[in-house]
Specification:
- The chain has helices at about 15-35, 40-45, 50-65, 70, 90-115, 120-140, 140-155, 160-165, 175-185, 185-200, 205, 210-225; strands at about 75-80, 85.
- It is an all-alpha fold.
- Strands 1-2 form a two-stranded antiparallel sheet.
- A hairpin with a 5-residue loop joins strand 1 (about 75-80) and strand 2.
- The longest helix is centred in the middle third of the chain and has 28 residues, at about 90-115.
- It is elongated and about 65 Å long.
Length: about 230
C-alpha cells in the first residue's frame, strides 16, 4: 500500500482501516475518559455497604504502619441508610489501584501482542470490556465493582493498538493519517457528557451503557480489521 504501488489511491480516506480507526479511537477515548472521570462517583454511589470490620481493620493497620496513617484513614463514611460507604478519599485511593490494573494490562498486553495478531487481541479486549461494562450495568454488588477494575485492565492496550492498525500500510501517508487518529481523542471531551446525563437520569451503573456501546465498536473494528 506504499505510495509507489501502482493503482493505489493516495487519499488516506480511501482506506477503510484508517477511517474506521479514527472513529474507533474517538469512541475508545470517549469510553476511557468516561470511566476514569466517573470512577469516584461510581465507587461512592454504587458500592455495597461496607462491613464495620473493614473500618476497624484499616484503623488497626494505620496504627501499626505509621508512615501510611494518613493514607489509611478516612476511607469510609456513614451512608444515607446508616451503613458504611466509601468516602471520596477512599474512592480516590482505590482509583490508584485501577491505574495499577491499567499498567499491568499494558505490560501483559505487550507480551500478547508479540505472540498474537494485534487486531485479534484488540477485538478480544474490546469484547471483554463490553462484558465488564454490562456486568457493571447489571448492578451485581461486588462483582460489578471488580468489573470496573477489569475494564481498566482491558483498556490498557487499545490506544496504541488502534493507532498502529490505523496507519498500517500507508507508507509516507502515515504521518498525515496519524495526526487524524490522534485528533480523535476529542471523543474524551464529548461523550462523557452523555454518560453523565444517563447517570443523572438513572444512576452511575446505568451510565456504563455508554462506554459499553463504544467498546462494541472497538471489538467490531478489531475482529473485522483484516477485511
Amino acid at each position: 500500500l506504499d505510495d509507489a504501488t501502482p493503482g493505489v489511491s493516495r487519499s488516506i480516506w480511501s482506506h477503510s482501516h484508517f477511517v474506521l480507526a479514527v472513529i474507533t479511537q474517538f469512541l475508545y477515548v470517549a469510553a476511557q475518559a468516561g470511566i476514569f472521570s466517573f470512577f469516584i462517583n461510581y465507587m461512592t454511589a454504587e458500592t455495597p455497604s461496607i462491613p464495620s470490620s473493614w473500618e476497624a481493620g484499616l484503623a488497626g493497620l494505620a496504627g501499626s504502619v505509621g508512615f501510611l496513617k494518613d493514607w489509611l484513614t478516612g476511607w469510609f463514611e456513614a451512608g444515607k441508610t446508616g451503613g458504611l460507604m466509601l468516602s471520596n478519599k477512599g474512592a480516590s485511593n482505590l482509583a490508584s489501584l485501577g491505574f495499577v490494573c491499567f499498567l499491568i494490562g499494558r505490560f501483559s498486553g505487550a507480551i500478547l501482542l508479540k505472540k498474537f495478531s494485534a487486531h485479534k487481541v484488540l477485538g478480544l479486549y474490546g469484547l471483554m470490556n463490553v462484558i465488564a461494562c454490562f456486568v457493571v450495568f447489571l448492578k451485581i454488588g461486588w462483582i460489578s465493582v471488580i468489573s470496573v477494575y477489569l475494564s481498566f485492565f482491558f483498556m490498557s492496550i487499545m490506544f496504541p493498538t488502534i493507532f498502529a492498525l490505523g496507519i498500517f500500510g500507508l507508507g509516507a501517508r502515515a504521518k498525515k493519517a496519524s495526526s487524524y487518529i490522534v485528533m480523535a481523542i476529542m471523543g474524551g471531551a464529548i461523550l462523557p457528557k452523555l454518560m453523565g446525563a444517563v447517570a443523572d437520569h438513572y444512576d452511575m451503573s446505568r451510565g456504563f451503557i455508554v462506554p459499553m456501546v463504544c467498546f462494541i465498536f472497538v471489538a467490531f473494528y478489531g475482529f473485522n480489521w483484516p477485511k
